[in-house]
Amino acid sequence: MEGKEERLEYVWIAVIILMLTSFLGLLGYATIIKGYSTPEDVVTCEVKKLDEQITPGIEEVAPGVYVVNITGRQWSWTPNEITLENPKKVIFRVTSADVVHGFQIVGTNVNFMVFPGYIAEITWYPPSDLEGEHLIVCNEYCGIAHQDMWAKLVIERG
Ligand code: CUA
Predict the structure, then answer these.
(1) Which ligand 1 atom is nearest residue 75's CA?
(2) What are phi and psi of 31, to 5 degrees?
(3) pLDDT in 10s for each residue of the chain, 158 residues
(4) Model pTM?
(5) Whose CA is nearest to atom 1 of ligand 1?
(6) What value does the CA radius of gyration of the chain take, rounded to a whole number of Å?
(7) How many C-alpha atoms does 66 have within 13 Å on its Cβ side?
């Protein structure tokens, strides 16, 4: 005859199986159906030779398609002002010359960490109604003047 404890054990086994299947199910949903993934094709760079490997600046490689190379260092972003005309696709290539920084364009979904020794390459499709001035901040504490580390993104439409 089954005791009360034994029945409780079956209940807990069922709870654990349910949790595992729901976690794995969510993982499968996120990766297979939604296509989420961890960063691939990691690009490394040598901090000491940074200037040879990344030249900060903006390049329009096709109409509306921009490649923006940015270097972060305590406590500024270079370039400090990024102006894009009718951008459809923006590829940010961002690296750090010293410590970990966080690159965030306030009010958008652009938000990633920047590590010395790596070039973070992020593709952004700005919403077609996004225009005007937008603040770029550093959102990883990177030292005494962290709060002064900001830049400006200007989107011109027309
Ligand atoms: Cu860079 Cu905070």
Answers:
(1) 1
(2) -85, -45
(3) 568 889 999 999 999 999 999 999 999 999 898 887 776 667 888 888 887 788 899 999 999 999 999 999 999 999 999 999 999 999 999 999 999 999 999 999 899 999 998 999 999 999 999 999 999 999 999 999 999 999 999 999 98
(4) 0.74
(5) 101
(6) 22
(7) 21
- 43-156 falls under which CATH superfamily? Cupredoxins -  blue copper proteins (2.60.40.420)
**What residues does ligand 1 touch, defined as CB less than 6 Å away?**
72, 75, 101, 138, 140-142, 146, 149
Report the nearest atom of ligand 1 relative to the CA of 141. 2
42 secondary structure, DSSP code: P
Residues with Cβ within 8 Å of 89's Cβ and at least 6 positions away in sequence, in order, are 64, 65, 66, 123, 124, 125
Ligand 1 center from residue 99 Cα (angstroms): 8
Distance from the CA of 58 to the center of ligand 1, in angstroms? 21
| Domain range summary for the chain, segments of one domain joined by + | 1-37, 43-156
